[in-house]
Write a structure and sequence with these properties.
The structure is a single chain. By secondary structure, this protein is an alpha/beta fold. It is built from nine helices and ten strands. It has a six-stranded mixed β-sheet with strand order 5-4-1-6-7-10, sandwiched between helices. The protein has a two-stranded antiparallel ribbon with strand order 2-3. α5 runs parallel beside α6 and α6 packs parallel to α7. The longest helix has 21 residues.
């Protein structure tokens, strides 16, 4: 084979690969912690508001071809809006997410932080493995309500090649936490969460990243870090879970589906 033919073949291969990559549609589920602890304020802005500002900037920075969905959680999770393409659909889902921000105050959702259960629920809203799939978790704390362990959800996500990127919202020291006293609001100082060990492990095990936001000014840089991570489109290289663990996980999920605690999309 002469050099001209070789160059032509290589060029055709490059074009084919480029078309294949362009044909892939990234799917992202944004999972937002709305537990009452996110109402804690630092420098006049609550972590909950920082989360929503982050989501807005993140969705604006997504590639036009990407599909984005949303789910909120506290001690339980809300029904997920499955990934959809287009800025209009994304902004509509963001409005629904903002409408959920008082969910624990109004009693629509139990308080607590069920991170692992929320990740499982979000994974069921993502499509097949043909396209890169990611979950973006925004939280201010560690799990205290899930009925599934960190190791099991990690294995579940690895088996399905779903990456998890995590943004932790907290500061070093105390936050101002609002407390209702009669008809007025009183602020008390409470320590901010510093325990992100398990969610960091989940991110690393699925080839995602952990980024921390301590103040409003950190959001723009953190958004770019997450967008770069998602665009890499890496998938887990860790071997799938053992047969025993995998069967336990399947039975657990099938039981929840049967009880209508989880809705598949």
């Amino acid at each position: 084979m002469n050099k001209t033919v070789m160059k032509t073949v290589m060029a055709l291969i490059a074009i084919g690969l480029a078309q294949l990559l362009r044909a892939q549609t990234t799917e992202v589920m944004v999972v937002v912690d709305l537990s009452t602890s996110t109402l804690g304020e630092y420098q006049g802005t609550s972590f909950q508001e920082m989360e929503l500002l982050f989501v807005e900037q993140f969705t604006n920075g997504l590639d036009n071809s990407a599909k984005c969905g949303f789910s909120a959680f506290a001690g339980q999770w809300s029904n997920a809006c499955p990934p959809a393409a287009g800025r209009i659909q994304t902004k509509g889902m963001l409005s629904l997410l903002r409408a959920e921000k008082d969910c624990t105050k109004t009693g629509r959702m139990e308080d607590g932080t069920a991170i692992y259960s929320a990740l499982l629920h979000a994974s069921t809203a993502l499509g097949g493995q043909a396209n890169p799939r990611s979950i973006l978790l925004l939280t201010d704390g560690s799990d205290n309500r899930s009925n599934i362990s960190a190791s099991l959800i990690t294995q579940w996500l690895q088996d399905r090649k779903i990456r998890v990127d995590v943004v932790g919202f907290s500061c070093l020291g105390n936050v101002d936490y609002p407390m209702m006293t009669g008809d007025s609001v009183k602020y008390i100082q409470m320590p901010s969460n510093q325990d992100y060990q398990e969610v960091t492990r989940i991110a690393e095990a699925t080839n995602g990243v952990f980024v921390r936001v301590t103040q409003k000014g950190d959001i723009a840089k953190a958004v770019q870090q997450i967008l770069e991570s998602i665009r890499r489109g890496a998938i887990p290289t860790t071997p799938p879970p053992t047969g025993y663990i995998h069967e336990r996980m399947k039975r657990w999920l099938q039981d929840r589906i049967a009880k209508e605690e989880i809705q598949l999309f």
